[in-house]
Amino acid sequence: MNPFLDTIRELWTGMGDSPALIFLAFCLLPALPLPISLTLAFFGPLLIAQLGFGPAYSLILVAEALCMSWAYFVSAHPGRKLMLRLLAWRKITLPEFSQGDLLRFLVVFRITPGIPFFLQNIVLGVLRVPFWPYLLLSIPPQALYAFAFLKTGQGLLEGEAAPLVIGLGVLILAAVLVSWLRKKAKQRDKEAEDPSIQAEGEDLP
User: Fold this and answer.
1) Could you give the count of Cα atoms lying within 13 Å of 61 in the half-sphere of its Cβ?
2) Contact residues for 182 (Cβ-Cβ < 8 A; gap 6+)
3) How far is Cα 151 from Cα 131, in angstroms, rounded to an integer?
4) Three-state DSSP string of 18-76
């Protein structure tokens, strides 16, 4: 047997007896350079087994909201000077946004696939997106993502088809929705750059 894997297994089993520790893990780990899907897959089933899906899902959303909050404040205040120095060293300048463009960037940035969750929090904090819009617009996509992964994990853990199908279905729905929202955002940007595009669309029957 692998001692490292045995230690991980014992830790995983031990945390299953303490929802408070799992809640703390969801408050801290997603802000670190770790895939959030790994946190959901590793700790989600433990919390579901202890509390049931509904309470576990609700608790995870609260923990992730707290995680996004403290990561934002660290990036927007004490960590901002360090990030700005790093960007200056790399000769990268922060883009300037109007209020409306900043919120639109927030939504598109949150739903763009492939950008790590911890990096999203850092970038949005350094840009100093207004906190309450940051939090309120960040929760819905993360809630959808967490629901899909937790349902999928629940189905795999319990060996039941229904949660697995629901989870995969929500993931597919989320992918379609993200694609549609990104297309709408690109179309809006093109119309803002060239008003004649919007005028042509309005002239069509």
Assistant:
1) 20
2) 108, 111, 112
3) 30
4) CHHHHHHHHHHHHHCCCCHHHHHHHHHHHHHHHHCHHHHHHHHHHHHHHHHHHHHHHHH
- Residue among 68, 184, 61, 62 nearest 123 (CA): 68
Rounded Cα–Cα distance for residues 23 and 40 (Å) = 11
Rounded CA gap, 57 and 27, in Å? 14
Q: How far apart are the C-alpha atoms of 187 and 197, rounded to whole Å?
A: 9
Q: Is the dihedral of CA 40, 46, 51, 53 positive or negative?
A: positive
pTM here is 0.81
Q: Which long-range contacts (CB under 8 A, 24 or more apart) does 92-97 make?
A: 94/126, 94/127, 97/127
Successive 10-residue mean pLDDT values, the chain, 205 residues = 55 70 92 90 86 93 97 94 86 80 88 89 93 95 92 82 88 83 75 57 48
The rounded distance, in Å, linking the Cα atoms of 108 and 69 is 19
Tokens describing residue 106:
């927030």
